[in-house]
Amino acid sequence: MGPGSWSRDFPQGPDRAVRATVFLTAGSLIAAAMSFPPRLLAAPCSHSNAAALGSPAAQRSPLNAAVFGSGRDAACAASPEADSARWGRFLPEIAHQQKRIWLFPRSLARGRHWLPFTAFVLGTGSLIVLDQYDAPYFRRTTRFHTFNTTLTGVNAVAGMAAVPGALYAIAHFRHDGYMQRTVELAGEAVLDSEALNLVLRDVSRRLPPRDIPLNGNFADSFFDRHVGPFYVGPGGFPSGHTIGAVSLATIFARRYRRHRWVPWLAYGLAGVVGFSRLTRSDHFPSDVFAGAFLGYAISRYAVLRGTR
Question: 222 in a domain, yes or no?
Fold first, then answer.
């Protein structure tokens, strides 16, 4: 793609704004991730792993060897006491995590977590300023037509549900408690994230770019959407698809981070979902950024906190 190829679809000024948004979004996400306090989420396995390390089950299981590798990871997977699904605690855990999420302002009042909070505010605010230039480009261009017809909102949700469901079914038949627990945590992360997202969308009531005329005011989109019941979050800020996709990706990426391809694949697929929200004019770039940030933060620091 040549330097001026985008200008054939849209004037050069907004073209620069679109490119600036791409770099700003990527840079803000990286800076925000680095600003979080380091935390070793994978604590040592329980004492039962000493026996599991040398157990025949840990050595024979092809799934453990392919996904978990050897050593401590394989031991965690082989030991049912170490980390297994516990659906009876599903709702109580979500209630506890919601308490953490909604009491976050108390942490700020105590002087904690100001660095990631500032990164979120600055990144989101900067992108909101650029939204008026980015959104018209995606409304006018036709270069993403095939991509848009393939990755619809329904297809994205179906994929996000099918992948964990399939992994859980495989783990069930292979008696893989670690994978089952991972899928359970993924479900908790999505519900936690979407609960916060629902409230924010009800409050923001932001118009999606597709509902704004091409010659309309893309800079004035908040508090203008009054279509749809409150329980579906009629607004567009943040992106619900993105917050859900990044929540799932973070759980799998963190739980299987010793395999370098897993984070790349998980976050790559989540990025495709987020990008589709832009190309379909369902969301502004700031909506997608906010969804990605919140999905990552909630999954890693509310859901995975204290887990292996």
Answer: yes
